[in-house]
C-alpha cells in the first residue's frame, strides 16, 4: 500500500495531471475545502494555497501520515476517517473535491455526507479517469460524467474542465432548496 501511495506522489504524474494548472481557476481562495479520499496528499499543497481552510480526509492511516509531511499551514486539518462519516461540522464546507477517489467509495453514503457537510451554496469538484484512458483504475470501477450527474441529483452541473489527457473534470453547484 505504501508503494502505491508513493507512486501517487511521483513527480511524473504532473505531466498528465497537474492540479496547479486547474485548481487556481476553480477556487476563490477564501473557501473552506474538503479533499475527500485525499490519499497521500497529492492535491493538498495546491488546495492549501487556494483555500482559507482545508480538511484532508482518508480512511488509510498511512495516507494521512504521508499527507502530514506535505501540509504547510495550521489551518489544514487531517482526518483519518471514512468519507461517508466524517467529524466535519454540518454546513461548514464551501467546496468538496474528489480527485480519483469517489469511484472507490460507497456512492449513496458518501453522497449523504456531502449533503450534510456542504453549505447550501456549496460546490463539488470531481476529477476522475476517462473510461478510455490507457492508465488508471480498472475500467469497470470508473465512472462517467453521466454516472456523476445521476449520483449528484441535488446539484446542477455548473461547468466542465480538462485536468489532463486521461481525466475529466466536473463542477457541481448545489441546487437552491425551495
Automatic annotation (TrEMBL):
Residue ranges constituting the Methyltransferase type domain according to the UniProt record: 35-126
UniProt key word Cell membrane: no
GO biological process: methylation
Entry-linked InterPro entries: Diverse_substrate_MTase, Methyltransf_11, SAM-dependent_MTases_sf
Superkingdom in the source lineage: Archaea
Keywords: Methyltransferase, Transferase
GO molecular function annotations of the record: S-adenosylmethionine-dependent methyltransferase activity
Record Pfam families: Methyltransf_11 (PF08241)
Chain segments annotated as coiled-coil in the UniProt record: none
The keyword Transferase is assigned to this record: yes
Family statement: Belongs to the methyltransferase superfamily.
Protein name (database record): Methyltransferase domain-containing protein
